[in-house]
Amino acid sequence: MNFKNTQLLTIYTYLQKELASKAVVTIIVDNPDTIEDAISLKSWIDVAQILFARLGVPKVLESNSLELTFYKLNQNNSFHTQKIEQKEEKYGVSSPFFKLDKLKQASFLHYYLQALQAVQIEQRRAILNLGINKGDEFALIKDILPLKKFEAIKFIGIDHSTTIIEYLKKRFATNSNMSFFAADINKLALLGLPKSDLIISIGTLQSPGINYKPFLMELVQEHLAPNGALILGFPNSRWIDGELIYGAKAPNYSYSEMSLVCSDIIFAKKYLQQKRFRVSVTGKDYLFITATKIAKV
């Protein structure tokens, strides 16, 4: 279908209707590289995401025309809806979640790097990661720090999945400064761990089995060193058919609704500020709370 010199509303409505019944839809549009007021490629990527589709690589038909192909995502292909008999292995090595790579998502990588810079990662000496999964957050720290500074840090990762812990011990087998434990983070005190000066938790504190508010308060009061910092990641997205789709699915809504994630972030921000932390909220597909202790005057 040719949509040159056509407003976005008309094209969006067409794609929405066609993708409801077709797996693949192809259109022809103005080339934004050569037509000044053409719809941007960024907008087409947004359209694909909103309509639960994957945008193929655009084809230049002629200097002023692009061919865009939208592939409908299989919304049933998601770890969010997968039924797992052993709940501890919902995110284990055999799960769809394990195959995902957040570090290939610029919207995650950028804001996580920003958070690491804010907490002055090179000065930390004891880092605890709750719900570590395959350890990408630790791997990135290893990549960005000089070897001596990396080796000066004690890393501890905790996950409910025993298969994940087995994987991590192999992945980081050459790093003697890393320890991993298969445990329920609700029973963190039973591990007898020393306090950490940085706690990282990405997408774990909102898990159904965690009583979020009292858990966060206990985490700060019992497991964080006096001058410690936190990096907390709150998913505002869903993984569907291998694609990271903006907007978390809220109960009882057929569309993305942000009240719950905003409520959790507001609580954490207010609580941490009361505890004399400097708190920033950043991010997009993952929203990050970065908290660092305010020095006493």
Spatial strand order of the main sheet: 7-6-5-8-9-13-12
CATH-level-4 superfamily name of the largest domain:
Vaccinia Virus protein VP39
- What is the ordering of alpha helices and beta strands? HEHEEEHEHHEHEEHEEEHEE
Known CATH architecture of the largest domain: 3-Layer(aba) Sandwich
Structural class: alpha/beta
Shape type: elongated
List the helices and strands and how they pair.
Layout: H1 8-19, E1 24-30, H2 41-50, E2 53-55, E3 59-62, E4 65-72, H3 106-118, E5 126-130, H4 136-144, H5 147-151, E6 154-159, H6 162-171, E7 178-182, E8 196-202, H7 212-223, E9 224-235, E10 237-240, E11 243-246, H8 259-274, E12 277-283, E13 286-293
Parallel strand pairs: 5-6, 5-8, 6-7, 8-9
Antiparallel strand pairs: 1-4, 2-4, 3-4, 9-13, 10-11, 12-13
Task: Describe this entry's structure for a reader.
The protein has helices at 8-19, 41-50, 106-118, 136-144, 147-151, 162-171, 212-223, 259-274; strands at 24-30, 53-55, 59-62, 65-72, 126-130, 154-159, 178-182, 196-202, 224-235, 237-240, 243-246, 277-283, 286-293. It is an alpha/beta fold and 297 residues long. It folds into 2 domains: 8-72, no CATH class; 87-293, 3-Layer(aba) Sandwich (Rossmann fold), CATH 3.40.50. Helix 7 runs parallel beside helix 8 (259-274). 29% of the residues are buried. The mean pLDDT is 92.
Fill in the keyword field for this structure:
single chain, about 300 residues, alpha/beta, Rossmann fold, 2 domains, seven-stranded mixed beta sheet, about 30% helix, elongated
Structure summary:
The chain is an alpha/beta fold and 297 residues long. It has two domains: 8-72, no CATH class; 87-293, 3-Layer(aba) Sandwich (Rossmann fold). The chain has eight helices and 13 strands.
